[in-house]
Amino acid sequence: MNLLGIYEQMGLGKQVYERGEAVLERLADRFRAIDRTAEANQAKVLLAMQKNRIGANHFAATTGYGYDDDGRERLEKVYADVFHTEAALVRPQITCGTHALTVALSANLLPGDELLSPVGLPYDTLQEVIGIRPSPCSLAEYGVSYRQAGLRPGGTFDYEAIRAAITPKTKLVTIQRSKGYATRPSFSVGQIGELIDFCKRVKPDVICMVDNCYGEFVDVVEPSDVGADMVVGSLIKNPGGGLAPIGGYICGTKTCVDRCAYRLSAPGLGQEVGANLGLLPAFYQGFFLAPAVTAGALKGAIFAANLYEGLGFRCIPGGSEARSDIIQAVELGSEAAMCAFCAGIQAAAPVDSFAAPVPGDMPGYDSQVIMAAGTFVQGSSIELSADGPIRPPYAVYFQGGLTWHHAKLGILLSLQKMVDRGLAEL
Ligand SMILES: *Cc1c(COP(=O)(O)O)cnc(C)c1O
Q1: Which atom of ligand 1 is nearest to the CA of 178?
Q2: What is the C-alpha to C-alpha distance for residues 95 and 73, in angstroms, rounded to an integer?
Q3: Is the pTM of this model over 0.85?
C-alpha cells in the first residue's frame, strides 16, 4: 500500500498532502542546518557520557533516602558537562518546569530581595509563583518584591528601562528564552548573552537565571555558555527526549545549585538524598536522544510556519526566521479555528487519537486553554502537541513531535480539519 493510501485512511486528502510536499521542497537547506546542529549536540552529550564513564551499573534503581546513588550523581555531572556549568540538579522529585523554576527562585531569593524580569511578563504559571497574580505561598507572600521591564516594540530589550529597574535590592534577574504564550519573539542565546552582560555591568553580583524551557539543543550553545548563573527546564520537554516520564533540571554555579538542592529537599540534606526510583535509564537514554528529538520538533515547527504562512496566517516566528526554541505560534483568528487545528493534531496521535479536544480551565492559567496531546507521557510537550489560551489573537502554540514524520502528519491533519470546516482555503 502506498503512503497516500495510508494517509487517506487517517483522513488526510491528496490536496493537503501535495500542498505539504510543495512546501517541503523549499526547506532542504533549513533541514540540513538543523541536522548539523543536532550532530554537534549529539557529540556533546556522548562526550559527557563517555567522560563520566557511564556504565550499565549506573542505571540501578534506588529507593528510600537514596544515599550513595552513583547513577544519580553521574547523571548530574553529565548535565553539568553538557551545559558547561559547575553543578547540576536533575531530579524526578522536581515535578515540572514550573517547579524547577520555583525551586531556583525561592532558593536564591530571601525576604527583602527583589526579582527583575527584563523581558516583560513571565510565563503564565510563573505569575502565581512570583505573586503577580496573588497566590498562597507566592514569593510576594515571603517578602520578595518584583519588578519588570517591558520589551520595546518589535520585541527588543529596553536597556534604559532595565537600567532604571535594577536597584540595590535586585538580587536575581529572570530571563525567559521562549515566548511561552506571548506573541513576542523568543530570544537567541546570543541576545540572552548581551542582556546578561548588560545586567552584570549595571550590578556585577546580580544572579542571572534563564528559563530555558523548549530551548535546549536548538542551538549549539546554551545560555550557560554566555554567562547565565542558572539554566532551568523541564524533562518532559526537550532534554528528556520524550523518554523521561517526569522531572526537571537546574544547571549552574555551585553556590546557586547547592541552595536549590537545600530548598528542594531540606537544609542540611541537599543533593545527598533523593531516590531515583528506577527512572535513571529513561533519564540517560532520553538525554542521549534529546538532540535528535529536538531536531525533529524543529523541522515540524518550520514546516508548520511555512505551510500556514503560505495560506495567509501570521506565524511567529515567520517561516524563514531563525529559531531559538521549538515553539511555533500560528494566529488563527478564532476559537473555531483553534479547535479545528487542535482536532487535527489530536487525530494524528498514537495515543487518544479518538478524543476531541475542547477548551477548559487549567490550574495556573487565567483564561480557558485548549490542548491537543495524544502523548505517552501526560502533558509532555516534546511530544506532538498544540495548545493555546482562548483569547485574541487566538494563537495556537504548536510544538514537539518525537519524530519529524509524526510532526509532519499532525500539521497536515491540522490543516485538513481547517479545510474540512471551511476555516482555511488551499
Ligand atoms: C513549559 C514552560 C514552563 C513551565 O513548565 P511546566 O512543566 O509546564 O510547569 C515555564 N516556562 C516556559 C517558557 C515554558 O515553556
Answers
A1: 13
A2: 19
A3: yes
